[in-house]
Design a protein that fits this description.
Blueprint (H helix, E strand, L loop, with lengths): L3 H6 L4 H24 L32 H16 L8 H25 L3 H24 L5 H32 L9 H22 L4 H23 L6 H28 L1
Protein name: Membrane protein
Organism: Cellulomonas cellasea DSM 20118
InterPro entries: TspO/MBR-related_sf (IPR038330)
């Protein structure tokens, strides 16, 4: 097992310096591009792009508008991560070596997702967001398996990655629902309400799977659960207010939110007691 002291003693390579600079510059470009593309400085908001397919009222699985404020927290964490990983003394950190390129890839994919939606391609947005989810899952696995190094660096990395994964997990489900609705197959024989409940149950199961896998790394999995709980709760709130009302979906969303919130806490405490 590599410790902070042994990590610090490892030789710095030219690849480390290239990685640090590239991730820092790439993060700045990706975050700025995402902000401009999402309409933060004027222009068309995401909710109005692609014919409104991804608006807060497009499907029963669309989170209400306030849910998307979590992006400000995630972007802040990514910006801090980009700066921290670029510090000279962090060049040989084994966790940063393992995930920094993947984090940069996730930021570029997020910016690409916004561009694809602005171009009006809902099916393209599904492909991009599922690729983003796979990248974030890779980061998640690596952070769980590699021991913590410096406390501050590890917490910045873990909390940011956890929130990012949790939110994109919920957003992926909403994105798929939006595609199916825009393609005219949103009800798939069971009806929109029934399928929405099935998807919300799958989201709860995914939250439990994250919690079980990462039970020894609460710094990652608790933020993931919080972000999932946040997104699922806003789906429930969206179905109790506004034009798309559905009490059954709202109840299922609130139940899934509770599962996402509690599962990582329960598994982490259980793992700590066993240790």
């Amino acid at each position: 097992m590599q410790t902070p002291s042994t990590a610090a003693a490892a030789p710095v390579t030219s690849q480390d310096r290239v990685r640090q600079v590239t991730v820092l510059v790439g993060a700045a470009v990706a975050i700025a591009g995402a902000a401009v593309g999402s309409g933060a400085f004027g222009g068309q908001p995401i909710a109005e792009a692609a014919g409104g397919a991804l608006s807060a009222t497009a499907t029963p699985l669309a989170p209400d508008s306030p849910a998307f404020s979590i992006w400000s927290v995630i972007y802040t964490g990514l910006a801090v991560f980009a700066v921290v990983q670029a510090l000279p003394r962090r060049a040989t950190d084994p966790r940063l070596r393992a995930v920094s390129w993947w984090v940069l890839a996730s930021m570029l994919l997020n910016a690409l997702w916004i561009a694809v939606v602005q171009a009006g391609s809902v099916v393209g947005s599904v492909v991009v967001i599922l690729t983003l989810l796979a990248v974030l899952a890779t980061i998640f696995v690596r952070l769980v398996r590699i021991p913590h190094t410096g406390a501050a660096t590890s917490w910045v990395t873990d909390v940011t990655a956890g929130l990012y994964l949790g939110w994109v997990s919920v957003a992926s489900l909403a994105n798929i629902a939006a595609f199916l609705a825009s393609a005219g197959v949103g009800e798939l024989g069971l009806g929109a309400t029934a399928w929405s409940v099935v998807v919300l149950a799958a989201a709860a199961a995914l939250a439990v799977a994250y919690a079980v896998f990462a039970r020894t790394r609460p710094s990652v999995v608790v933020p993931a659960g919080l972000a999932m709980a946040w997104g699922l709760a806003w789906i429930g709130l969206g179905r109790t207010n506004g034009p798309v009302l559905d009490g059954t979906v709202a109840t299922a969303a609130f139940a899934a939110s509770a599962v996402a919130l509690l599962a990582p806490v329960v598994t982490s405490l259980a793992a700590r007691r066993r240790a």
